[in-house]
Amino acid sequence: MPHRFRFAVPSTLVPVLAFALGCGAPGTTAPAESASPAATASASAPSATPGAGNATRSTDADSAGHNRADIEFARDLAPHHEQAVVAAELAQERASDPAVRDLARRIAEAQEPETNQLLAMLRMWGEDVTPGGDSGEHEHSHLMTEETFQQLHDAADAEFDTLWLRTMIEHHRGAVELAEAQLDNGSDTLATMYAEKIIDRQTRQITEMRELLGE
């Protein structure tokens, strides 16, 4: 089932976003890599509660080793990561500071395959990969607004670097909040591993971005 993530970006960025949203598009993680987490999960994550045998996973995730918090974590973080990749690609083109361009490259390289991993995890659970379920409607308070994207697109040189860094600090904090919610309320081993990894990497990158801002 194709995934549909709904957040607004300026029309000038639509082609870039369309590229980022294509799981099988050129430049994304190879199928073998994106499938690896699912294969790992099949071996490491319990398929049912103890004593339940090989019972089929339910869509409510009550007995599958994962719960609603795990599903929301994956559904919310996938579009969040995809948006970060779009912003990172813009910075690689527009930033004047080589250190900012290097950070943007590392963000894109980490979050693009991780998006595929999150989607693979949802598919492994038999879940709809559309944020909010079948309706496709979901409140993404952690996502950048269209206005923010337009400001980034209009900025240049040092002004762009500063705006991008401040924007990405807040964006990373949003990802950390989503990951912390999974640690507090989730139950799936693989989802917890992803959450811990995200908190560690993005907290370090927040520190790096603040240093680039001279804070």
Structure, described:
- With 215 residues, the chain is mostly helical.
- The chain has a domain at 12-22 and 30-38 and 65-131 and 156-212: Ferritin.
- Helix content is 64%, strand content 0%.
- It has helices spanning 14-21, 31-44, 68-94, 98-124, 146-154, 157-185, 189-212.
- The N and C termini lie far apart (45 Å).
- Residues 1-63 and 132-138 have low confidence and may be disordered.
In short:
By secondary structure, this protein is mainly α. Helix content is 64%, strand content 0%. The protein has a domain at 12-22 and 30-38 and 65-131 and 156-212: Ferritin, core subunit, four-helix bundle (Ferritin, Up-down Bundle).
Topology (elements, then pairings):
Blueprint: H1 14-21, H2 31-44, H3 68-94, H4 98-124, H5 146-154, H6 157-185, H7 189-212
Helix pairs in contact: 1-3, 2-4, 3-4, 3-6, 4-7, 5-6, 6-7
